[in-house]
Amino acid sequence: MLKNCITCGKQTKSYSEFPCVECGEKIVRCAHCRKISNKYRCPSCKREGP
Question: At residue 35, what are phi and psi to the nearest 5 degrees?
Answer without folding.
Answer: -60, -40
